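In the current project phase, we have settled on a layout for protein records. A sample record is reproduced below.
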Amino acid sequence: GKQINKVAKILNTFSSVDRNLGVLFSGTKGMGKSMSMRRLAKLAVENGYPVLIINQNFEGIVEFLQKLNQSVVVLFDEFEKVFRANNDDDSEGCTQDEFLSLFDGTLVSAKKLFVMSCNEEQRISKCMINRPGRIHYHIRFTNPGEEEIFEYCNDNLANGRKEMIPEIVSLSYRTALSYDILRAVCFEI
C-alpha cells in the first residue's frame, strides 16, 4: 500500500529537521509494522544513518542514547512489551517515562530518529501519545480492506488460482485478516 511512501516521508522529515523525531507504528500483530521498520532501517542505512535496534530493557539505556553524538536511527520493536509504563510492575530496567526528555530532545547532543512499534497502544505512556514533540508521526496499521485484499491476492496468487479471490474477500467479512494470514492463505491456495 502506501507504506513505502510513508517510510520515505519519515526519513525525509528527519533529514530536514534539526531536532529529534519520534514515530509510533501501532496495530495488531501481522499488519506490517515490523516490515515497515525494516524498510525504514534499510533506507536510513542507504542515506548514511547508523541504525540501533533496542530489543532489551536494561539500566542505563537512556543515558547511553543521550551520549550518542551523531545522528542515528533507533528502533524499538514492541516498545510496550520491552519497556513498562511507570506503574505496570516492579520489574527492573527503564520505564517508558524515563524516555520522555530523550524523545523531546532536551538532553541530547545530536538529533535522533526514534521509531517504536506496539501492538497494544493503551500500554504506551499517556505522556507520549498526542505529543508531537515526542511522537511526531503515529501511524496506525489496520486490517486490510476489500481493495487491499484483492490487490494482495492478485499479486500473490498464481493465474490459475485468482478465481479464489472473491472467496478470500468473503472470508474477511467473517474474520479479521492480517497480512500474515493473507500470506498464509495465498501460500496454501
Q: What stands out?
A: Helices lie at 3-16, 33-46, 61-67, 79-82, 100-104, 146-156, 165-172, 179-188.
